Amino acid sequence: YPSEFLMQKITEDNQVPVHLHVSVSLQYVAGLKGRALVEFFHSNIAEVENEELRHLMWSSVLFYKTPNVEVMACVLLSTKAIYFLLDDSFVHADEHQSDFWNKENSDCENSSFHLSCCFVLKLNDLQSVNVGLFDQYFRITGHSADHIVTCLTRDSYNTHTFIQQLMAVLSLLARTPSPEPVDKDFYSEFGSKTTGKMENYELIHSSRVKFIYPNEEEIGDLAFLVAEKMDGLTNLPSLNILLYVLAFQVNHVEGSAQNTSSLQPKTLILTSSDLFLFDEDYISYPLPEFAKEPPKRDKYQLADGRRIRDLDRVLMGYQTYPQALTFVFDDVQNQDLMQNLTLDHFGE
Predict the structure, then answer these.
(1) In terms of CB atoms within 10 Å, which end of the chain has fewer, N or C?
(2) CATH 1.20.120 given to domain 216-329
């Protein structure tokens, strides 16, 4: 251990997404290759000597206790735990969460060291994994509110690869087998559903970790919600959601030294007649078992919506993935979606 193939794969995966900024400490990690990366894992991160690094992924993450702070992380999956190597700016982002993060190293801030926090979720504490719509994100749930993390991969391939690797690692865990199921008769098995709502698809892994996938009803609920926002202008049965994607809305920051832009996470939903931007809660739903009350905000909150027939043109950037798109609408009454786009775009 480790094989040449694994080291090559981990080296290839060790690339920070170009559109996201990371701290100096994480830039150092992103610069490591092959054996140096594995040695870094064993000397700085691994908690026991005989654990193996199996997978590496860069992703934005959200924590249940700080649902409004999305932070960049290097996610490392080993045979014992999932490690989230976090951007050090996150610790100071939410001051009232000081009980959640141990700040004993704060006196080192002005030294030449670059510190990162590492959040550890042991595989033995893992209870369920909820996969989001169209594999755009997934939520890992442990036994308490401190152990709920959502990885916003915004990429179905990365989600699929991580889930596969996680299942493979969980298969190695020695857990006590579940008790034998009691034989149920036909009526108790199919007649005990008190609600008419279909349950989500659940796959119970041999390690007893649940992998929960969304069902068709979630798309139906989303279509109904979108139709509500359209003020009944459309016929619900004919409303189809053509595209659901986690994206960023670009807001240019005025008066900064260089022409910088802030990225606001949004859920983009395209129907046959409209384009919507939603603020979505990726961490609170479905409700964890220990939750005493519903979340403070709805799962979907409409941020903006436009009719496709008002779309004048789409400007495409020439950079590689992720692609930047600018939608220009000609509805005079409602200019707020593209307020930053002026004729200067075609000038100097």
Answers:
(1) C
(2) no
Tens-place pLDDT, residues 15-55: 998 877 888 889 999 999 999 999 999 999 998 888 999 99
Phi, psi of 263 (to 5 degrees): -105, 120
What is the share, in percent, of the chain residues with pLDDT greater than 90?
41
**Cβ-Cβ contacts under 8 Å for 318 (sequence gap 6 or more):** none
> For residues 89 and 99, what is the distance between their CA atoms, to the nearest angstrom?
16
Cα 228 to chain centroid, rounded: 26
pLDDT in tens, 132-161: 999 999 999 999 999 999 999 999 999 999
User: Virtual CA dihedral for 175, 3, 15, 155, nearest 10 degrees?
Assistant: -50
Q: Cα angle at 169 between 81 and 135, to 5 degrees?
A: 90
Contact (Cβ atoms closer than 8 angstroms) between residue 268 and residue 245: yes
CA nearest to 272, candidates 299, 243, 294, 296: 243
51, 2 contact by CB (below 8 A): no
**Hey, what amino acid is at 248?**
F
Query: What token pair was written down for 182?
Result: 């009691």
What length is written for the chain? 348
Q: Tell me if residue 342 falls in helix, strand or coil.
A: coil
**How far is the CA of 1 from the CAs of 7, 123, 173, in angstroms?**
10, 21, 18
Where does 4-173 sit in CATH, by number? 2.30.29.30
pLDDT for 193 equals 47
Which residues, in sequence order, are bridge partners of residue 59? Answer: 73
Domain ranges for the chain, please list them: 4-173, 216-329
Same CATH fold, 216-329 and 4-173? Answer: yes
What is the predicted pLDDT for the residue at 194? 44
Cis status of the peptide bond prior to 286, with omega within 30 of 0: yes
Nearest to 88 by CA among 27, 13, 10, 19: 27
Check pLDDT > 60 for residue 110: no
Task: Examine residue 177 and say whether the peptide bond preceding it is cis (omega within 30 degrees of 0).
Answer: no
Please compute Rg for the chain using Cα positions.
23
Q: Across-strand partners of 139?
A: 130, 150
